[in-house]
Each structure stands twice: as structure tokens, then as C-alpha cells.
């Protein structure tokens, strides 16, 4: 333990074995070191953006046990939106100064690849200033398999049709034994990393996620972070890491006790310590709740995501995120916590200080 403390004091990188031992430290020791890193990088700033989440379909070819969003499991209301319906949402949200459109779909084999991609061109033609964050690596993998195209071909089409950056969804936990149990048939952990590497090699940025609190062990979380760190050493393309707290309502994973706040905050703090080459750690309020997300700003996180407006995936599993949060609430929560509210764009350029 003393060797690890010395390395933390000297701000030296921990290897995977050392990182696994961090779980034995108490929360406040981890928080002290995580917050030291956070303060060095960001001071008292807490970032957020004004964004709109859109989930165009919930009909999915994959059967992930942790998911409550997919229509063919416990969600009895299948839907697929038309491009016109999506554009109506875009028209409305632009009036509220939204700057990012975040589009993630299920894997709908009843559509065409053009249905997935053409909407991005439509958005860009009408609102060229909007940043489009769309198509997870899991969606890229699905489109590749469904329409017999390589990852490279899909990525070229993403660029052609107007996608600006990739969300981090579909990462779940990289360990393949865990994936066999919770999302067999979906993109592998190795291919998730490959797709993001290909995207980064095009000079584009993406987010990275980790879904935790289901059947994984702590060592699986650590390994997930180390593998992200290794790719970031190669490409530098991840602009944020987002630990997603699993939502258990309506899931096919049963008899699992929800994680407590201490375990969630420990995970955030260890992520801040281990991921020394990813600048931003997001406490995604849609999965951990806004109150705990604010506390997480004292344990290494520096971002809350955004106003969202409408969210369907996490809320289907029980999260209180269906209708987003308004801008005034965001700013007041950050300021009352002793931090400085910073509106950012999708790539972490600062737009406004409150």
C-alpha cells in the first residue's frame, strides 16, 4: 500500500495490478488523490452542454440482458421514427439554443443503412452549426454485419453524411466472459476499441463509457479502464470517460443489489486516478441522479453531461432522466456546490462562464 501511496504522491502512473489495489483504499483517500488531479486539470470548473438526446428506434436485433429499452424484451411499445418526426424535434430544440444532437438507436434490422445515416445529412443541411454526436461502436458493428460493409466503409459514410463525433455507448464491460453473459452477439470489446481507433485515425474524437454495477467484479472495471488508457496512449482521441451506473428496473439480470453511493464514487475516483491521459471524467447525472453527480465533482469528476431534454434508454431502466433538466437548474446546482458553471461545446471548448 505504501508503494502505491508514494506513486500517487509523485503522480506516477499505476499499472493494472496496482490499480486493482486502489479498491482497498477508503473512499476519502481515493477522493483526495482524485480531486488533486481534477483540481490541477480543471480548477473549480464544472462543465455541461446544452444538448438533445434522440433515440430514433427501440427495435433491436440484439438481446442484452441489462437493457430495458429494447422493444422485444420487457418494453411492449416498439417504435421507429420517421426522418420527418426527427426533424420536427430538431426544429423545436434549436429554438432553445441547443448545440448538440446526440442520436443513439437500437439495432433495427427492419430499416436500411440509409435510414440510419440520411438523417445526419438532413440535419446538417438545415442546421450546419449543430454538432452531431451519433452512432455508437455497437451500431457501427451492427450496420457492418447487417449490410455487409467493413468498419472502414461505415466510418467513411459517417463522415460523408455529417457525423462530428462518436458517443461511447456499447462498451459495457470489455471482459469477454462478462459480455457473453450480458450482451452475447453484440460488438466485442476488442472490436469496440478497434472502431474507435479507426475513428480517431480520421482525426475525430469520441467518448468512452463503462457500464458497471451489474454482474462484473471490480477487477473487470479496472481492466476496462486500462484498455481505454492503452488506446488513448496510441490515438489521443477520447475526450471524456463516462462511467454509466446500470439501471436495474425491467432488466433480465435479477437478484442484484444496486450499488451504493460509496461504490459509485470509488469507481469515479479510481477512474480519475487511472485514466491519466483522458482529461474529462463525466458524472452522467442520467444514470446516477443529479444529487450524486454533484457530489462526484468532489471525487474527481468535472462534467455533468447536459440538459438532455428527452432521454429514453436509461429512463426505461428506472433512471429519473426522461425529461432532462433545465438550464437554470443546472447552473444553480453547480454554483450552490461551490463550483463554476461552464457551458462547453461537444469537444470541450468553453462557450460561457456563469
TrEMBL record:
Its EC number is 2.5.1.120. Pfam families: CofH_C, Radical_SAM. Its cofactor is [4Fe-4S] cluster. The keyword 4Fe-4S applies. Transmembrane segments: none annotated. Pathway: Quinol/quinone metabolism; menaquinone biosynthesis. PROSITE patterns: RADICAL_SAM. Residues 46-276 form the Radical SAM core domain. Keywords: 4Fe-4S, Iron, Iron-sulfur, Menaquinone biosynthesis, Metal-binding, S-adenosyl-L-methionine, Transferase. The keyword Phosphoprotein does not apply. Binds 1 [4Fe-4S] cluster. The cluster is coordinated with 3 cysteines and an exchangeable S-adenosyl-L-methionine. It is an enzyme of class 2 (transferase). Belongs to the radical SAM superfamily. MqnE family. Radical SAM enzyme that catalyzes the addition of the adenosyl radical to the double bond of 3-[(1-carboxyvinyl)oxy]benzoate, leading to aminodeoxyfutalosine (AFL), a key intermediate in the formation of menaquinone (MK, vitamin K2) from chorismate. PANTHER family: AMINODEOXYFUTALOSINE SYNTHASE (PTHR43076:SF7), FO SYNTHASE (COFH) (PTHR43076). This is Aminodeoxyfutalosine synthase. It comes from Campylobacter insulaenigrae.
